[in-house]
């Protein structure tokens, strides 16, 4: 429903219209002007924030145009109540608003036509289209961005001028305001009209021919194919770094423009092809391996191509039903992280053959460092990373509600002491008010404990080191902001495709700076200081690397943390019991299982402080191999090997088909059977 500020703005705007009516009926020009200003400002704020409440208002027939029209009608009512209905300013106001709304139609039509004419059948990144076709600059963004809101706000000149005229009983200000509104509105429409012909793109056939020309030159060998909703972009983003490290020529093919908008920066060439016919006509003849990160209906548009082998790689291994989708039967191979994925398909018995499953590890986990114990003299760090409350009220979804406060209280009171990092899921509290309140209480516990520890003389700090780290953070953030600004896309999708060649040096510098930022961040405060970690940075895996143990819930977070080999605990919030909990969830078989009281935390802390007091160490190592495969060869090496082997199979198949076709073309035609009757032989 939006933030508290958005709700407040919506309430102010909604209540403003009845107040405007009252002020018009009274009549009171100062009150009317003040309330009108509030409605203008609230409306603008909601649009600037792209608030979901704007969509709700539109659905209940209180859309943008209606709100402006009502405000203008109330101004006319105010003039009538002020006994100005016989004055020229009254008729001028009515004529102005009628003409103003008459201009909305050509304005809206021009905006729509410009956008349609600037839309190409494909959108690209890291592909040099500018050398193949001419793509003119987009019209200035100021003309097209939130264009309806900008056009309607041009009534401000007339609105303010008419109010001033009514207050001063002098029509000049009103006439000037009316003239200003009409001149600006007509000018806006005329400027848009000038861009109708000058900024047109090449037709679809020329654009597709240019892309095919590039494909023939680049000769991609491995494709990452993805289709999904806007919110599923993370599923393709998690594979981009792996694609960059392939030993074959990679290509990313997307089906939705919304996904392209949310695609993370990458050096891999990207083609977004919304149309199925356009995709099927692309020249992908050199591709030998196609990788699929999700099971969706649009996969069929590429699955139909027999010259490449098709592989389901998914977007994370877990015990969820989605990990054993029967749809997976359509692929030539299914790649899993470890033996667990293979066994999962065997148990589910959904038709995926065992010989089509290949274990390749999880390349995305390469940045997670293995545990070597807590260094001497350092306070152990325990990460509490609960998942969110989910879409229902199942108590097993998250530990925040029933166990979170107990977990944090025990951790901050631990003796010998430990440091607590609290990193909640970004969706925490978005659906459940109870979860949001619990999160706030946990956050307060951590911050209070941090303040108490800072005042404890046993914990010392190196102010010079921390000040230097903070200065370094400021420097790095300034440089990152500069690089981000340099790479900001301007104009529209067509212009972004034309200018979408990544700056390799800048891309590498950003990656290096992010690593430096992460290092400086952890040095900018004492290693014993409790911390609430929210936002995109530092990332979850960065928190893994500075922690010595973790407490979490059933989620992919646990499966990923297992790669570190560190002790971990998982909360049985639904109170299934230890044995049943482990039976249902493979990833917790080497974990300390916590009840909602968190009384079992002592086992986790003991294992963290002394590796000799860690009875689950061997179980974790075995579970890691089972879930994620062996450490050697590395996962990216396994992945590249699997790609190469499958490409050979695709090539062998294609050569076989070519040989068969050649053999059939060279064979002499068989003599046709001649009916006996044609030779004069009687059938009798």
Could you describe the 3D structure shown?
The protein has 28 helices and 14 strands. By secondary structure, the protein is of the alpha/beta class. The protein has an eight-stranded mixed beta sheet. The chain has a six-stranded parallel beta sheet with strand order 11-10-9-12-13-14, with helices on both faces. β3 (250-254), α14 (257-261) and β4 form a beta-alpha-beta unit. α4 (64-81) runs antiparallel to α5. The longest helix has 32 residues, at 635-666. The protein starts with a helix and ends in an 18-residue tail after the last helix. Residues 677-684 have low confidence and may be disordered.
Question: Concise description?
Answer:
The protein is an alpha/beta fold and about 675 residues long. The protein is built from 28 helices and 14 strands. Helix 20 (about 465-485) packs antiparallel against helix 22.
Give the assembly state of these chains: single chain
Neighbour order of strands in the largest sheet: 1-4-3-2-5-6-7-8
Q: Which stretches are low in confidence, meaning pLDDT under 50 for 5 or more residues running?
A: 677-684
Q: What's the tally of helices?
A: 28
Structural class: alpha/beta
Number of extended strands = 14
Alpha carbon gap, first and last residue: 90 Å
Bin the helical content: 40-55%
Principal-axes geometry comes out as globular
Which short descriptors sum up this protein?
single chain, alpha/beta, 8-stranded mixed β-sheet, 6-stranded parallel β-sheet, 51% helix, disordered C terminus
């Amino acid at each position: 429903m939006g933030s508290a500020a958005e709700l407040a703005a919506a309430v102010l705007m909604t209540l403003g219209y009845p107040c405007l009516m009252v002020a018009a009926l009274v009549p009171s020009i100062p009150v009317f002007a003040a309330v009108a200003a509030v409605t203008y400002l609230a409306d603008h704020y909601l649009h600037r924030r792209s608030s979901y409440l704007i969509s709700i208002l539109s659905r209940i027939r209180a859309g943008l145009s209606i709100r402006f029209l009502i405000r203008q009608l109330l101004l006319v009512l105010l003039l009538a109540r002020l006994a100005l209905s016989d004055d020229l300013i009254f008729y001028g106001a009515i004529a102005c608003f009628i003409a103003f709304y008459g201009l909305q139609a050509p304005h809206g039509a021009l905006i729509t036509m410009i956008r349609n004419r600037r839309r190409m059948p494909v959108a690209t990144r890291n592909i040099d289209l500018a050398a193949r076709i001419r793509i003119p600059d987009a019209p200035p963004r100021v003309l097209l961005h939130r264009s309806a809101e900008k056009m309607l706000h041009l009534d401000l000149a007339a609105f303010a001028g008419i109010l001033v005229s009514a207050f001063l009983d002098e029509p000049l200000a009103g006439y000037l305001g009316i003239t200003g509104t009409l001149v600006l509105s007509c000018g806006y429409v005329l400027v848009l009209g000038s861009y109708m012909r000058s900024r047109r793109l090449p037709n679809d056939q020329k654009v597709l021919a240019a892309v095919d020309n590039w494909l023939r030159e680049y000769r991609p060998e491995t494709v990452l194919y993805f289709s999904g909703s806007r919110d599923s972009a993370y599923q393709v983003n998690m594979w981009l770094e792996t694609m960059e490290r392939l030993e074959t020529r990679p290509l990313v093919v997307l089906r939705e423009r919304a996904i392209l908008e949310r695609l993370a920066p990458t050096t891999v060439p990207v083609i977004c092809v919304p149309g199925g016919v356009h995709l099927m006509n692309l020249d992908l003849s050199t591709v030998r391996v196609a990788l699929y990160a999700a099971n969706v209906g649009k996969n069929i548009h590429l699955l139909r191509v027999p010259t490449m082998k098709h592989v389901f790689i998914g977007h994370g291994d877990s015990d969820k039903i989605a990990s054993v989708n029967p749809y997976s039967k359509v692929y030539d191979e299914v790649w899993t992280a470890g033996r667990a994925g293979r066994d999962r398909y065997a148990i589910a018995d959904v038709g995926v053959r065992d010989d089509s499953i290949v274990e390749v590890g999880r390349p995305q986990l390469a940045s997670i460092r293995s545990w070597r114990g807590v260094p001497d003299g350092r306070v152990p760090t325990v990460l509490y990373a609960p998942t969110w409350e989910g879409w229902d009220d199942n108590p097993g979804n998250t530990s925040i509600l029933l166990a979170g406060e107990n977990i944090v209280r025990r951790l901050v009171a631990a003796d010998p002491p430990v440091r607590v990092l609290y990193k909640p899921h970004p969706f925490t509290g978005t659906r459940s008010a109870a979860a949001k309140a619990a999160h706030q209480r946990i956050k307060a516990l951590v911050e209070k404990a941090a303040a108490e520890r800072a005042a404890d003389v046993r914990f010392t700090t190196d102010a010079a080191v921390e000040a230097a780290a903070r200065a370094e953070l400021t420097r790095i953030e300034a440089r990152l902001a500069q690089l981000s600004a340099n790479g900001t896309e301007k104009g529209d999708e067509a212009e972004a495709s034309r200018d979408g060649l990544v700056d390799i040096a800048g891309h590498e510098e950003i990656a290096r700076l992010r690593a430096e930022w992460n290092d400086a961040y952890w040095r900018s405060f004492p290693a014993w200081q409790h911390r609430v970690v929210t936002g995109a940075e530092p990332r979850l895996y960065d928190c893994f690397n500075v922690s010595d143990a973790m407490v979490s819930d059933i989620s992919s977070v646990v499966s990923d943390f297992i790669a570190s080999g560190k002790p971990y605990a998982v909360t049985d919030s639904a109170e299934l019991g230890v044995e049943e909990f482990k039976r249902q969830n493979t990833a917790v078989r080497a974990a300390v299982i916590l009840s909602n009281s968190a009384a079992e935390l002592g086992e986790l802390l003991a294992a963290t402080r002394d590796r000799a007091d860690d009875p689950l160490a061997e179980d974790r190592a075995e579970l890691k191999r089972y879930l994620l495969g062996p450490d050697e060869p590395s996962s990216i090496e396994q992945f590249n090997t699997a790609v190469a082997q499958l490409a050979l199979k695709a090539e062998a198949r294609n050569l076989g088909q070519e040989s068969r076709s050649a053999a059939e073309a060279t064979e002499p035609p068989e003599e046709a059977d001649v009916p006996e009757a044609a030779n004069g032989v009687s059938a009798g």
